Amino acid sequence: MADDPFAKKTVQKAPRQHHWRRELVELAALFTAVTVADTVAKTVVNAPDGPVTLVVCAVALAATAGWHTWWARRHTPASAAPAAPDPGVADSTEPAPDVQGPVGEPVVPGGTALWRMRTTVREEPGSLAQLCAALAAGRIDILALQTHPLGESTVDEFLLRAPAALDPRALARLAAGAGGSDTWTERADAHDLVDAPARVLGLATRTALDPAELPLALRQLLGRCTIRSVPGQAPPEGILEGTVVRLPDPSGGEIVVERHHLPFTPTEFARARALVELDTRLGHRTPPGRDALTLPEGQSITIRRADARDLEAALAMHGRCSKQTLTQRYHGPVKDADRYLRHLLSPRFGRTLAVETASGKLVALGHLLWDGDETEAALLVEDAWQRRGIGGELLRRLTGLAREARCESVYAITQASNTGMVAAMRGLGMPLDYQVEEGTLVVTASLVSAEVGAGATAGRGGADAAPS
Q1: Per-residue pLDDT tens for 401-421?
Q2: pLDDT for residue 195 is more than 70
């Protein structure tokens, strides 16, 4: 660096100017002070109590200096004292939390966690800035923001990355301190990192391709809620009533969406209505996919999506099934089995897979019925086609559809004596929970903790007795 001309210019000092007149004055003052001190010392020493007087003066000066030091420390202004750390806000001298780690994993001490937060602020300049500043003070990173105008107020919806140790109540207190009210928080996951326009376009695409996706699309759009298709006639523009939304069902009746923990906003209502209008305009449609399979005995079958147009073929299959098979499937009188089919084949209540032979005869049905975070899987295989692996193949496909829909679990309701359905659930290779009550067995497979390898259970037979 010594050869760098720019470095020399940086460290070089300006030449000091000597003021000889000031130095002469300082030297004269020094001589005068020494003369005065010598005169005073001689006068005191020559006095009768001269040495005692000098000692007393020294002690008095030392005591005065000590008292002054104590007084200065006790009466230090509050502004000059270091601020005590706020337990609700992270110390700025601590290292920032690692925000580069993976999301959606179990929270570990010192890590971060994803949160969704909604709070209501007044519609006035600076309200959002004040809220963002409060979150920044708590070392909370804002990953996404949506605003829902309500006239005199606005609902701000945040996706946040916060220190893992931060309690949701502390998060609500930060929002309240910045002017937020009616604050609601919920843990988020990696799926929420997709920005709102991309997520809405994806849901619209899924709805356009498959009418059975509409209830799931509405649920993913509006968060944790209950969606029912009921008889009735909602107006074409729909109805928004706080925590309830009513929309006309393109298949007939009306769709009722309820969310008790959080009122719907006009923005959410408009988005939901747009999805329903898209489904209405596209009309009746069925995904065209068909998969051809060969059974171990050599017979060829086809698995495809089914809908209300398969009602006649499904009724014919009922006529070929034994009373025991229908009882194990529908858990009630056989005479009621036929009237359940129209409900089961509707895309509003779930998805249905049909199995056809090479001649086009329907021999099996698999239903996946929406039930909040859980889904029910139900199978019916014609007697002559049981014990060939059809039930197990249908169940694996239904479970895959539930996983794609981000459902947390799949359960099957059957009789304790139905060993075929139990074997099919065990063949999934997932954690299972068994509950038995008065001869009825409920087997639940957890989709959250399961890690099933692709094709790990493919080709297993003997799991398709009269199901569910």
Answers
A1: 888 877 888 999 988 778 888
A2: yes
**Which residues, in sequence order, are bridge partners of residue 161?**
114, 141
Asked, for residue 428, whether it belongs to a domain, the answer is yes
Residue 300 is inside which H or E element, if any?
strand 300-305
Residues in the chain: 468
Q: Left (φ > 0), alpha (ψ -120 to 50) or beta: where does 246 sit?
A: beta
pLDDT confidence of residue 275: 92
End residue of a domain, out of 258, 282, 306: 282
Q: How many domains does the chain have?
A: 3
Task: Quote the percentage of the chain above a pLDDT of 70.
Answer: 72
10 Å Cβ neighbour count for 454? 7
Residue 16 lies in a domain: no
Where do runs of H (alpha helix) occur along 150-301? 168-177, 196-209, 214-222, 266-282
Same domain, 294 and 441: yes
In this structure, are 127 and 256 located in the same domain? no
Backbone angles phi, psi at 108, to 5 degrees: -120, 150
Pair 238, 138 in one domain: no
| DSSP-based three-state secondary structure for 63 | helix
Question: Is residue 445 a contact partner of residue 413, using CB atoms and an 8 Å limit?
Answer: no
Residues 215 and 342 in one domain: no
Do 333 and 419 belong together in one domain? yes
Distance of CA 204 to the CA centre of its chain: 21
Q: What is the DSSP string of 206-244?
A: HHHH-GGGHHHHHHHHH-S-EEEEESS---TT-EEETTE
Residues 6+ apart with CB under 8 A from 76: none
Last-in-domain residue among 170, 191, 212: 191
Residues 448, 143, 447, CA angle at the centre, nearest 5°?
5
In a domain, 27, yes or no: no
Residue 366 sits in which domain range?
290-446
3-state class of 292 per DSSP? strand
Whether the full predicted model's pTM is greater than 0.70, yes or no, is no
